[in-house]
What does this fold into?
Amino acid sequence: MDELCFLDATAQAELVRRKKVKPLELVEAAIQRIERLNPTLNAVVTPMYDLARRAAAAPIPGAFAGVPFLLKDFLAEYAEVRFTEGTVFLKDHVPAEDSELVKRYKRAGLIVIGKSNTPELAIGPTTEPRLFGPTRNPWDLGRTPGGSSGGAAAAVAAGLVPMAHGNDAGGSIRVPAACCGVFGLKPSRARNPLGPHYGDVFSGLVAEHALTRSVRDSAALLDATAGPDLGDPYWVPPPARPFVQEVGADPGRLHIAFTTRTLHGSAVHPDCGEAVREAAALCAALGHDVVEAAPALDAELLWQRFTTVLAAGFAWAIADWGRRTGRTPTDQFFEAFVWAFTERGRQLSAPDYLLALQDLQRLSRAMARFFLDYDVWLAPTLGEPPVPLGTFSFSGGDPLAVRRRMAAFTPFTYLANVTGQPAMSVPLFWNGEGLPLGTHFTGRFGDEATLFRLAAQLEAARPWAGRRPPVSA
It folds into this structure.
């Protein structure tokens, strides 16, 4: 049954369609692996086994009929199941209705078997909430799995499920994908819905999708979930054809820019820089035009204004949960860093917030001009290999100092959240210590198709599916 668990979701669904395996068998195999490996990884924080077994026993429609799946314990609400967002404040909260995205997952035939770990309010590039404790990287148990979708990434990498839900406000799909050696795509802004509670989260920074074992799974899942919900505040142009049809399609001769230095001009870790140079060479060998170039942006202004919007967003999130629950949020319910950072958000004025948005929108136009000359921008996903757990601990003082340290670890990913562009981390390389090193590709707004074509080409040239971490046996 373990070999079933290391098939991708497309292959598992095909076995169900051909009646070679029953949905309940897939579910039981996933549950057995969770029971065996989760005490070590701490990737799954809310099991939903009974619900999953009942769902597997009923008729199941959809492209992924019978495939086990995890929801990240953030934004995606499942009716009548505990929903915490990683915080003590919500440890007993149970929503009354499904999020629109969850409804679409169900219509696709996915069987949710549990919820994955996330840092408190999904803030930060590691997954170490006080409420549930840290998730551990299956490649090295002392290292971070990334964040904020760290539980999802660890679960996919270790073969607990073939793919898992994630969301991304500054790299929270792509960073854990890089840390755990799986594929992670952040779609264009508004590609997936956020309703019914939200039309927009953090002024458009947040995007919903998943971490997957294969490129085709990511594409097919996006086909199943993409499209505006009624009343959404904005929308992205629909694709010319299903995304899954882009997998294996000829990408043509792409113009690819690459960089190994951050927008601030500083060097990344040598392992991460070397991975990008190797990825650039691979792209050139595949017939693409590859040059060293980067967008000319005011990096410090970008970071400051992004941090302003993020701080205001977390202050809003806590206020929103206070209103939804009818309870008063206080510092005793939240971790010290989260409370200190949201205090900064509460000190901001409405003009501060709107000026920050204006500046980010101006920077987004500059980024769009860069893509008049290039189809794809290649950079490291991380500024350094997966760091030890505890690296981002906060013992008081200035929370922005911790944010600076987080930004040094993830110096590229948040730009695509600001601009709304699609971006992906592709697991092409591992370093000498056996740690994954993601390579990061950003595409034009609304052009996931080019990224899927390129990703499938890279996957065929340098397949990663056979790599299994030590904590997976």
Notes: The chain has 15 helices and eleven strands. The mean pLDDT is 97. The longest strand covers residues 423-430. The first helix runs from residue 2 to 5.
